[in-house]
Amino acid sequence: MDNLGLSITLGITGITSLASGWWSINNLKKARYLLDTPTSKVRSAAQGYVELYGVLKDGAGLLSAPLSAEKCVWWSFAIDEQIRSGKDNNRWQQVEKGSSGALLCLNDGTGDCLIDPEGAHVIPMTKQVWYGTARHPHKEQLRKNFLQTMLSGVKRYRYTEQRLHANEPLYAIGDFVTRGGGQEAFDLAASQGALIREWKRDYAGLLRRFDRDRNGQLDPQEWQSVRHSAKVEAQRLHRQRSADPAEHYLRKPQESQPFILSSYGEDDIAKRFYRQAILGAFICIASALGAAYIINTQF
Fold it and tell me: Model confidence over 166-190: pLDDT tens digits?
């Protein structure tokens, strides 16, 4: 093996070993997070990283999945086109994908929690895969006849659609936040400062309210009135928000903790992550041994 070939081979095995090792550790961490985080109830959950288990409700309404038109509360899809690069050499290339961003609603018997699915690793129970000759399945019916299809050139597509449906069980782990109901943390100084900055954007209006001597400027005493009014207003707004019914939300954590939504329970998901961790570790070790063998035989 020449030097160039040796360098390429060692580079590939090294990158494979590092990538699979990272993948193994990442899956192991996910499994530990799932098993080490106790299940909370929506009504009494602490603010921060929590695990919930309940049933999906239709919330703000049902969605229509883009490929199958099935009613659901969440969907994702992918469209792959078959690329022919030889007589018997075909491969699939993704040409389109997407997922819904509507809030989900989980109910565990103690309350509702709205879930923002953005950034979540979603593991649904329903997954459909089928094939066709039009880029979008609903356009299949527009093909007039077989002869027209043959004359226009046949392309083959693979459609993959995943869905979450109302009344299905849902396991969710992520960052839990409650708004309203007197449960929000209140920083008076920060709220007061935010109000003053907002008022200063309309400086003419600020002068009309607090410039008592009408000289076009705010003196120290007038600024003191601004700060006092902002403090009073911040406290009023906080009381108003506290009087509103509490709304609970689950979202992607700001830290590196996993954000997972699944139709399956935590034990099933943890086993899946453990299997992936073992596979990653095996590939990592095999790649490292392969690199060591190549080095040993070449030098």
Answer: 999 999 999 999 887 655 667 889 8
Q: Which structural domain range is residue 204 located in?
A: 184-244
Question: What secondary structure letter does DSSP report for 118?
Answer: T
Q: How many CB atoms lie within 10 A of CB 153?
A: 7
Buried/exposed 77-103: b ≥16 CB within 10 Å, e otherwise:
bbbbeeeeeeeeeeeeeeeeeeebeeb
Residue 118 · residue 101 · CB < 8 Å: yes
Number of folded domains that form the chain: 2
Separation CA 272–CA 289 (nearest Å): 26
How many residues make up the chain in this entry?
Answer: 299
Strand partners, 132: 157
The answer to whether the CB of 56 falls within 8 A of the CB of 106 is yes
For tokens 């920060």, the residue is 190
Per-residue DSSP letter, 247:
E
Question: Model's pTM, two decimal places?
Answer: 0.70
